[in-house]
Write a structure and sequence with these properties.
Elements: H1 8-67, H2 69-79
Length: 99
């Protein structure tokens, strides 16, 4: 029976194939890690956005409650403040008319 022998070229091809197999497996693992990490990041960011939107809604409710005149009068009365007279009110967002 004849002994099994590989030439140097065949051994090189086998080693090259093994190296490519290991490299492609490492790349596959790396890509899978990136996908899982990105999914966790997206989930964390969505939760952060959801919390921020809830906070914004709560602030809108608080602002609407503060702006309501009845609430302002109630708070002013508790604090000892009175409603300002019309000539005491200065609107900052309007341009003043010059004579």
């Amino acid at each position: 029976m004849r002994q099994f022998k590989l030439t140097k070229l065949e051994i090189f091809i086998v080693y090259l194939s093994l190296a490519l197999f290991v490299y492609s497996g490492a790349q596959l693992i790396r890509r899978h890690y990136d996908v899982v990490k990105s999914a966790y990041d997206i989930t964390r960011l969505k939760e952060s956005v959801s919390r921020a939107q809830e906070r914004i809604e709560a602030l809108k409710v608080t602002r609407a409650r503060i702006i309501e005149p009845a609430y302002l009068e109630q708070v002013a009365g508790r604090s000892g403040y009175t409603q300002p007279r019309q000539d005491q009110i200065i609107l900052l967002y309007r341009q003043e008319e010059r004579p």
